[in-house]
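sry for the spam today, last one i promise. struct tokens for design, 386 residues
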């Protein structure tokens, strides 16, 4: 008899959709000892929540997240709500002995992240922060090549995470643009991914210098139910103040001596989800572009002098590239949503074996410290050590 894992998901917008797809699809494509059950989905508005539950096959709905945490038949709490709710829900879930699948960024600030990490260290729950891009096969190939020394000593990390969905001044003041609900602007929303990838591929960061700016200082208030990530509907003409940064450009020193940069903005027309990095080392270089997420570019200094150049590796070979064996033949490609399936598969295995999954709350804390130091640096106009 297959054992099951009862999931309670809190939040049902963009991440709720990506996670529901992953919980459902994982056991169809991967042999899992623990099969996720979409037990209960939680949100504030019962009617759209019920529609969501019916579409995705969640067995029940609940409008009070606390009731979900208390249930004995809930094994995992999936936190897919805006970050101002992360701390309270994650704290309650860990204290109730639930395994936690937490969306990024982990919390509103490093103080909350520190407290969550201290609590989870004393528990035996599995804790994971969903930086899905670590589970893109081409990124896993980059990690493998770096660990095997293929690019030698790393000199530079250059990360760029650009989008363009709020460049229109008519886009309303959604929760992403208010400090009390988002904590940070693209620094927390996007550079969190870039910093996590840099920590995964290059190593920990010892100091940062950063500049931030705002381009649009006030926007019309949103129709809350009709608005979300990438989609906004104004409620009328009343306006409110944007209280987070619109762009953050940060440079950093890594503990291993490398020098890096992080550029993030949601005012880059044409860049839809441009999570991009370059890594330069003594023996070669790697380039990844999420908008071409099945590819990894590789420059090898050990190629014959007349034949050197960046070559594109298609990371779609079963047996060579992580996760691909469970999907399609070479060249048939995978997408954004597959990374979430990979995270679910690895998370359920970590729960079953009681082993660690990364990135976890420790990684979430380290990342928050870097992001927060960046905003501190921008405020003080000086380099900040971490
Ligand atoms: C919005 O910027 C967003 O949905 C991020 O919050 C996600 O983490 C990223 O994967 C896509 O864009």
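last one done:
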């Amino acid at each position: 008899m297959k054992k099951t894992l009862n999931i309670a998901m809190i939040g049902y917008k963009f991440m709720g959709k990506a996670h529901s797809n992953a919980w459902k699809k994982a056991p169809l494509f991967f042999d899992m000892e623990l099969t996720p059950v979409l037990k209960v989905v939680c949100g504030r508005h019962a009617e759209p929540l019920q529609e969501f539950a019916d579409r995705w096959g969640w067995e029940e709905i609940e409008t009070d997240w606390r009731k979900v945490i208390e249930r004995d038949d809930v094994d995992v709490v999936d936190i897919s709500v805006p970050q101002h709710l992360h701390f309270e829900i994650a704290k309650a879930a860990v204290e109730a002995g639930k395994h936690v699948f937490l969306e990024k960024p982990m919390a509103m600030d490093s103080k909350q992240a520190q407290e969550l990490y201290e609590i989870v260290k004393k528990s035996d729950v599995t804790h994971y922060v969903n930086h899905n891009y670590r589970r893109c096969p081409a990124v896993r190939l980059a990690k493998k090549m770096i660990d095997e020394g293929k690019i030698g000593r790393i000199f530079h990390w250059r990360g760029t995470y650009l989008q363009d969905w709020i460049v229109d001044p008519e886009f309303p003041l959604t929760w992403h643009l208010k400090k009390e609900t988002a904590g940070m602007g693209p620094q927390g929303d996007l550079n969190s991914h870039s910093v996590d990838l840099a920590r995964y591929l290059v190593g920990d960061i010892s100091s940062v210098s950063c500049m931030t700016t705002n381009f649009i200082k006030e926007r019309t208030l949103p129709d809350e139910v009709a608005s979300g990530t990438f989609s906004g509907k104004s409620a009328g003409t009343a306006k409110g103040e944007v209280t987070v940064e619109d762009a953050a450009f940060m440079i950093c020193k890594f503990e291993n001596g490398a020098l890096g940069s992080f550029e993030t903005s949601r005012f880059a027309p044409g860049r839809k989800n441009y999570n991009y990095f370059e890594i330069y080392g003594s023996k070669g270089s790697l380039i990844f572009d999420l908008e071409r997420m099945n590819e990894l570019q590789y420059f090898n200094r050990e190629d014959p002098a007349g034949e050197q150049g960046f070559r594109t590796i298609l990371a779609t070979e079963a047996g060579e590239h992580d996760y691909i064996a469970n999907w399609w033949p070479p060249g048939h490609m995978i997408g954004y949503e597959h990374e979430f399936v990979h995270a679910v598969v690895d998370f359920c295995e970590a729960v079953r074996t009681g082993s660690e999954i990364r990135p976890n709350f420790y990684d979430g804390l380290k990342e928050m410290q870097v992001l927060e130091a960046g905003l501190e640096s921008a405020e003080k106009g000086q380099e900040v050590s971490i």
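The mean pLDDT is 97. ok im logging off now
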